[in-house]
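Backbone-to-sequence.
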C-alpha cells in the first residue's frame, strides 16, 4: 500500500474542509449538483474528445496503481543479476534456464531466455529496447490523461461559474438573493481548481514518477542482461549496475555485498 497517496488525500482534502468550517462555512454550502455535473461531466467529456476510448476506460486501473506500493526494487535487483552472472561463468549461459521461472519479472525473464537461447547481443538489445520504448509510451498515455484532466477541470469550473453568473444577472429583480446566488455560482470554480490540484494533477505526477522508476529498473535489467551475455566478471556486473543507484541506495547494498 502506498501510504503517501492516502495521507496526501486525507491531508489535502481534510485541510480544505477544515478551513471551510473554521471560516463559518458548511459542507452543505459546498454541495451544488449542477456545479458537480458541469465540472465532472465537462472534464470527462473533454477527456473523451482528446483521448481514445480504450485509454480512458483504462484510467481506473491506472489510478488504482497510485495506491499500491511499487513492486520494483532496484537495490534487490543487483544481487539477483550478480547471482546470474556467477552461475553463467561457472556453468554456462544454458544453466540460467533453470532459474528463469523465479525471476518474477516478465521483462527480465524474456531477456535472460534470449541470452540462454544464444541470440546475438545486438538482437537482444534491439528487442528489449523496443519493448522498453512501448512500455514508456503506454505509461505516458496514462499519466498524460490525468495531466490533461488537471487542465480541463479549472476551465470547466470557470464555465460553470460564468453560467451561474448569467443566471444571476438574469434575475436582478430579486436583489436580496444575489449574494447567495453568486456564492453558489463560484462553487463550480472551486470544484474545478480543487479537483485539478488535489486529484488529477497529483495522481498524474505520481503515475509519472512510478513510470520513471519502472523504466529505470528495466534499464538496469537490460544492462545486467547484456553484461552477463558478454561474460563480464560478476564484480564488474555489480559495479555497472550500482551506477543506476543513488548514493544512499549504494550504501544500503554494500553490507549485503560484503557478506
Amino acid at each position: 500500500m502506498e501510504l503517501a497517496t492516502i495521507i496526501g488525500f486525507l491531508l489535502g482534502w481534510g485541510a480544505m474542509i477544515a478551513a471551510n468550517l473554521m471560516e463559518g462555512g458548511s459542507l452543505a454550502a459546498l454541495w451544488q449538483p449542477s456545479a458537480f455535473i458541469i465540472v465532472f461531466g465537462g472534464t470527462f467529456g473533454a477527456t473523451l474528445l482528446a483521448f481514445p476510448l480504450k485509454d480512458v476506460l483504462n484510467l481506473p486501473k491506472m489510478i488504482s496503481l497510485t495506491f499500491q506500493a511499487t513492486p520494483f526494487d532496484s537495490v534487490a535487483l543487483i544481487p539477483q543479476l550478480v547471482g546470474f552472472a556467477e552461475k553463467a561463468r561457472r556453468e554456462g549461459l544454458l544453466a540460467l534456464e533453470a532459474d528463469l521461472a523465479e525471476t518474477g519479472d516478465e521483462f527480465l525473464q524474456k531477456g535472460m531466455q534470449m541470452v540462454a537461447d544464444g541470440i546475438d547481443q545486438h538482437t537482444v538489445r534491439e528487442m528489449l529496447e523496443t519493448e522498453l520504448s512501448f512500455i514508456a509510451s503506454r505509461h505516458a498515455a496514462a499519466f498524460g490523461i490525468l495531466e490533461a484532466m488537471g487542465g480541463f477541470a479549472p476551465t470547466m469550473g470557470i464555465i460553470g461559474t460564468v453560467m451561474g453568473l448569467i443566471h444571476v444577472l438574469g434575475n436582478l429583480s430579486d436583489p436580496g438573493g444575489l449574494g447567495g446566488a453568486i456564492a453558489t455560482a463560484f462553487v463550480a470554480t472551486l470544484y474545478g481548481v480543487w479537483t485539478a490540484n488535489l486529484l488529477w494533477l497529483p495522481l498524474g505526477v505520481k503515475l509519472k514518477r512510478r513510470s520513471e522508476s519502472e523504466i529505470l529498473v528495466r534499464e538496469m535489467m537490460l544492462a545486467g542482461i547484456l553484461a552477463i551475455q558478454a561474460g563480464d566478471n560478476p564484480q564488474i556486473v555489480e559495479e555497472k549496475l550500482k551506477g543506476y543507484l543513488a548514493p544512499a541506495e549504494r550504501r544500503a547494498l554494500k553490507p549485503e555485498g560484503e557478506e
